[in-house]
Specification:
With 233 residues, this protein is mostly beta strands. It folds into two domains: 149 residues, no CATH class; 79 residues, no CATH class. 0% of the residues lie in helices and 51% in strands. It has no helices and 18 strands. The strands form six sheets. The protein has a four-stranded antiparallel β-sheet, with no helix packed on it. The chain has a four-stranded antiparallel β-sheet with strand order 6-7-10-11, with no helix packed on it. It is globular. It starts with a strand and ends in a 9-residue tail after the last strand. The mean pLDDT is 90.
Length: 233
């Protein structure tokens, strides 16, 4: 595995984790204004699915380029058909597709990035905007899950996470031997059990706090949606 860096303006560098034969493994290191924002050893990857049972399991880098304050990464996306769809019958059982095609389907996924700046509380903030765009002549996705984490300095220890929700601790200081989750559990003793989960993903607009915020002694990280949509996180 190696890292291919792309620049987004003058202050943002984003590393793409690459495998053999141009396989794209995900986003690795992210550095803004000299500050690392995540552990680059663990890929941040999009997980795509179609309602008729296609799951995209492999990505291949087609091309990537930076121009001014923006950058574009174009990927080939390969899907397998699981034979089990998201459609339900009258008895709420997921419908299956007998004899589903075993050949991988090939579509396109584009990541667009643009440098961004804000002035909040009398301070200048530097960062970037990002967006995924899926393209296919035959298929449409119904869900995308961005699977990964953000932590200032590339580690959770030393970070303070503020999360004003209904059930979780509003202030968490990352340290070894401690647990934290934004999911709503029925009881702490049921952590890790599917039966112990009240809800895992919640609509952004339905939370007390519809953004993510963490800080250390030297930096702060704010993640938010510029426009409200019915997304879960």
């Amino acid at each position: 595995m190696n890292v291919k860096y792309i620049r987004v303006g003058d202050r943002v560098r984003i590393g793409m984790l690459m495998g053999a034969n141009r396989e794209w493994l995900g986003i690795g290191p992210v550095v803004v204004a000299g500050v690392s924002l995540r552990d680059g050893r663990h890929p941040l990857v999009p997980r795509l699915a179609t309602p008729d049972g296609h799951v995209y399991t492999k990505f291949e880098l087609d091309w990537a380029r930076s121009e001014g304050n923006a950058a574009t990464v174009h990927l080939h996306a390969y899907a397998v058909h699981t034979a089990r769809t998201e459609y339900l019958d009258e008895y709420t059982q997921r419908m299956v597709v007998p004899g589903a095609d075993r050949q991988m389907a090939k579509d396109s996924l584009t990541l667009t990035l643009k440098s961004a700046a804000e002035r909040l509380g009398g301070r200048e903030w530097a960062g970037f905007e990002w967006q995924w765009m899926f393209s296919s002549r035959r298929r449409r996705i119904h869900a995308i899950l961005v699977d990964g984490s953000w932590e200032i300095g590339g580690r959770i220890t030393g970070c303070v996470l503020l999360h004003q929700g209904q059930c979780n601790r509003p202030v968490y200081r990352g340290s070894r031997g401690t647990d934290f989750t934004t999911a709503c559990l029925k009881t702490l003793q049921q952590r890790g059990s599917p039966q112990g989960m009240s809800y895992q993903l919640a609509p952004r607009g339905g939370l007390i706090q519809a953004f993510d915020f963490m800080h250390t002694e030297d930096a702060a990280l704010l993640i938010y949606w510029p426009k409200y949509d019915s997304v879960c996180s």
